[in-house]
Structure formats: structure tokens, C-alpha cells
Write a structure and sequence with these properties.
The protein is built from nine helices and six strands; from the N terminus they run ββαααβαααβαββαα. With 274 residues, it is mainly alpha-helical. The N and C termini lie far apart (54 Å).
Length: 274
């Protein structure tokens, strides 16, 4: 029997994991509950920080009614694109510290309402299926279904931890389009954003510590869910490498998604700059 102890907002959350026993549904529930508790604890901490600082710099408090109407119209026009790549910051978009409500909306969209997240998990599950990992799950659609569910469960845990870490540190969780032109400058920008993010100043870049810490933890936990014997530390390290590769690829697709749609005559009313 091994015990995993997590500290969140001065409260202890204890989850007992028997890594040698068969993986049961209760283990999934415990891990998902842990991620949710961490997220809620982070949001509560961030709320206390905002209360102390007076919530200066929020978008809603600093824009006029006409500006709010224009911003609302722009958000509505971007909404179908956000369903594909998730919330983003356009080239001409202004960077402002996010409120707790905005962070919750971004978390829900990125985790459950973005097509790209489902496609990425389908890709990962396809690799697992081709490798027959774990072999106890067999092949065919039934095997793929289990692998896909496992990968998406891993993603929920990982993204919950990332959201909580970003909230605590005040990091920007959205992808910001490059304020530049040219294929290579934009590609470099997309890859770099997988390793650095704006802090709460929305001007200074900091290492993506929450993203990679969450990737390692989620990979370690994922390997413990699988049937059979697995090297859990290897699973965590592999997930860090996957975050570096797949995360960079996802940013690349996001950076050029509108260009591809424009090339096919779609969404021409949503320029990259807005």
C-alpha cells in the first residue's frame, strides 16, 4: 500500500492508492476528486489575493459600455474558432489580468468544450492501440474505447492541475497569437509558448512550471491505473516528453488554424488580428 499526500491551501488531501491491486473505478473517482479539490483550493487562494489587491486591471471594470458591446461582438464571432483550438488572445487583443470567473470559463472550455483536446487524446489512444499497450485491454473498438477513456481521464487530471497552478501563480492560460508575420517567426513563437507563459503582470514571461509539473504527475498516476506492472516514474517522464512534443504541435496548429480556414474560404470574417 502506498499513500499519496497532497497539500492544497493549508489543507491535507489524502488519497490511498494500492498500486498492486486491480485498477477499479474508485481509483479514478479519487484522483479526479483530488484534481478538483486542488483547482477549487487554487481558485479560493487567488480570490483572496484579488480581494487584497482590489481586483485592479480587470477588463469589465475598465471598459465603457460601447467598448463592452464591441468586445462581446468580437467574442461571439470568434466562438466557433474557440471550439476548435480553445480560448486564445488575438494579435490585437489586450492582455489583462484574468478574474476568477474568466479562469473557470477558460478551464471548462479547454478541458471539455474544445475539439482539439478530443483529437489529441484520440491520437494518443491510437498510438497506445498500435503498440498494444496495455495488452490486457485487447484490440478492436472495445480496446480503443478503454484507451481513449484512460487518456482523456489523464488529460482531465493534468489540465485541472495546470489550471490550479496557473491560478496560484497568476499565469496566463490562453494561447496568444504571435504579433509578428512570417512562417518561421510564428512557428518559433508557437513552440516557445509551450515552455513559457506570461505571469500576472501580462508582460513578463516565466517558465511553464505548472504545465510540466502537472504532466509528470498525471503521467505517473496514469501508469498506476494501467493493468499489469509498469514503471510509474518512466510514465511520468514520458508524459513530460509528450507535453513538450504534442503541446508544441498543438500551439503550431492553433497559430496557423485561421490561416488554413481562410485558405479554404472559411471564417474570413474572423481575421487573425481580432
Amino acid at each position: 500500500m502506498r499513500t499519496l499526500s497532497v497539500v492544497a491551501n493549508r489543507s491535507f488531501v489524502i488519497v490511498d492508492l494500492d498500486l498492486r491491486a486491480p485498477r477499479q473505478r474508485a481509483a479514478w473517482h479519487s484522483l479526479l476528486s483530488l484534481a478538483i479539490l486542488i483547482l477549487l483550493s487554487a481558485v479560493q487562494t487567488r480570490a483572496q489575493q484579488c480581494a487584497q489587491t482590489g481586483n485592479h486591471g480587470t477588463v469589465d471594470e475598465q471598459t465603457s459600455d460601447a467598448g463592452e458591446a464591441g468586445s462581446r461582438s468580437a467574442r461571439l464571432s470568434r466562438l466557433p474558432i474557440e471550439w476548435i483550438i480553445g480560448p486564445y488572445i488575438p494579435v490585437q487583443g489586450q492582455l489583462h489580468p484574468l478574474t476568477n470567473a474568466q479562469r473557470r470559463q477558460i478551464y471548462l472550455r479547454q478541458t471539455f468544450l474544445t475539439a482539439g483536446s478530443y483529437v489529441a487524446r484520440a491520437f494518443s489512444a491510437g498510438i497506445d492501440q498500435a503498440q498494444g499497450e496495455p495488452h490486457q485491454w485487447g484490440g478492436g473498438f472495445a480496446g480503443y474505447e478503454r484507451r481513449y477513456a484512460a487518456r482523456y481521464g489523464e488529460f482531465i487530471v493534468q489540465n485541472s492541475m495546470v489550471a490550479g497552478g496557473n491560478a496560484l501563480l497568476g499565469y496566463e492560460p490562453r494561447y496568444d497569437f504571435c504579433r509578428c508575420n512570417g512562417f518561421w517567426p510564428r512557428t518559433l513563437h508557437a513552440v516557445s509558448r509551450n515552455f513559457v507563459a506570461y505571469n500576472r503582470s501580462e508582460r513578463q514571461l516565466r517558465p511553464q512550471v505548472p504545465a510540466y509539473a502537472a504532466a509528470f504527475t498525471a503521467g505517473l498516476l496514469y501508469s498506476s491505473w494501467l493493468a499489469g506492472q509498469h514503471n510509474h516514474w518512466k510514465g511520468g517522464a514520458f508524459n513530460v516528453l509528450a507535453q513538450a512534443g504534442i503541446g508544441s504541435g498543438y500551439n503550431f496548429v492553433s497559430e496557423f488554424a485561421l490561416d488554413v480556414l481562410h485558405a479554404f474560404g472559411l471564417k474570413k470574417d474572423v481575421p487573425r488580428g481580432q
